[in-house]
Amino acid sequence: MVSQLLVVLLGVMMSIGAAWLIGNTLAARLEREKKLTERDVNALTTFQELYGDFYSCWKQWGNLPKSSDNSERLLSAAAAVEGKYEALLVLVCSERPLSERDRLALGALRQGIQQLRDSIKVGENLDWWSSEDRSYVALKSLAGYVAVLLRPRAMGLAGTSPQRPTAAEAGAALITVTSNRFEEDWVNSAEALGIQV
Questions:
Q1: Where are the domains of the chain?
Q2: Among 25, 37, 143, 196, whose Cα sits 20 to 30 Å from the Cα of 6?
Q3: pTM flag (> 0.70)
Q4: pLDDT by residue (tens digit) across 66-80?
Q5: What is the C-alpha separation between 19 and 24, in angstroms, rounded?
Q6: Residues sharing a CB contact under 8 Å with residue 131, sequence separation 6 or more, in sequence order
Q7: Quick count: other Cβ atoms within 10 Å of Cβ 32?
Q8: Nearest residue to 88 (alpha-carbon basis) of 44, 55, 132
Q9: Of 91, 86, 79, 78, which Cα lies nearest the Cα of 43?
Q10: What is the DSSP letter of 185?
């Protein structure tokens, strides 16, 4: 009778232990997924904000008198947008494995964003007066591509985090996307992605 009671007690203890282990594992998985989703949402929100800042600066530059005060203020604003995008590139390159297409889009968009600062420096408007303009369409299309790239990722099976690049892969990706190779050809790079420009 005592041995049966011990067997039952041992079975109950093992069941409680297994439930505790499974519960903690699921709770840890949910917490990891929540943190990953928060980071991804923050990255996408940052991108949307910097795109809005770019657009605002662009429209102000096109509509305000070309005074030195306006030029200085908007040059600073354009540089801030570029800085925010550069910081986002470091995050994206270190957090996500990037295909060659992804790198192409990120690098080409970087150069597209730099067009505003370059135009302010020389005191000229961006020559994107039509929604059909190749540069305008390229910038919009690249922004859409990057926004989709930044969508929150899902956890893998059994609670595994999405794949991350190695330090060497992240460094190589960052070197590629910040390369000046896109400087003269960023619109054609958008076309190479199959984007109709």
A1: 38-192
A2: 25
A3: yes
A4: 999 999 999 999 999
A5: 8
A6: 137
A7: 14
A8: 44
A9: 91
A10: T
